[in-house]
Amino acid sequence: MIFPLDSFTITGWPHCVGAVKHRGKRRVSVKLVDSFLVPKATGRAFVVQKGQVLRISQPEGPRVVDFNAFNRDNCRELFGSSVTRRQVGIHPSVGDQLFSCPPWERPMFTIVADTVKHEPSQSGTRSHDVLSGRCSRVRRLQQYGSDSPGCQEILAAAIEAFGLTSDYVHDPFNIFMKTGLNKVGRSFWEESDAVKGDYIDLLAIMTCIVAISACPGRSSGPGTDPAGVELYKNP
Predict the structure, then answer these.
(1) What are phi and psi of 123, to 5 degrees?
(2) Averaged over 22-28, what is the pLDDT?
(3) pTM metric for this prediction
(4) Which residues sit opposite 60 in a β-bridge?
């Protein structure tokens, strides 16, 4: 287990049922339901129940995570990158919601905590985006000459367990990826601000199938660090 205790108190979740104020801060006791690591260049899909909090972490060092989500009761209602971008901007932050695609356009998750220190950048970059699409085998071959799976293929393999095909993979919420737009409107990335121990917490507004890819791309840096996943619920 990434955390040695299966129940502890955490700050930053004002929307959780049972939250109380302690020394002026919202605090809520939560129980660890599950935890696992996702090695670099692999993926995993799992269910997050409504009201649970999904923590995606950096247990050893920076690892960009491509995040897909589907309404468990209707997988055609999936995470809407463009809707979220329109509603909250290209870099969602604490308090912002992640929305589903048209025609539903409903909140799926709320970002309730983020420990990344978003250092000021002269180029205007920031971590966590709904700006860039996922990498793919085609893109990796074109860009780097590497005939190897990208996040498209990794996510497709992960969602097979739920009977979903590769065409269900969609533009992700890029967690821990530091991106921006240049003067001519083209997106670019810089080295991630994330460090060992950082995490982002997402409160589920609906029960979802979540799929993540521990991105094999260069935006995470040269390391082979995994991504961490923990699920919490009110005890």
Answers:
(1) -85, -5
(2) 55
(3) 0.88
(4) none
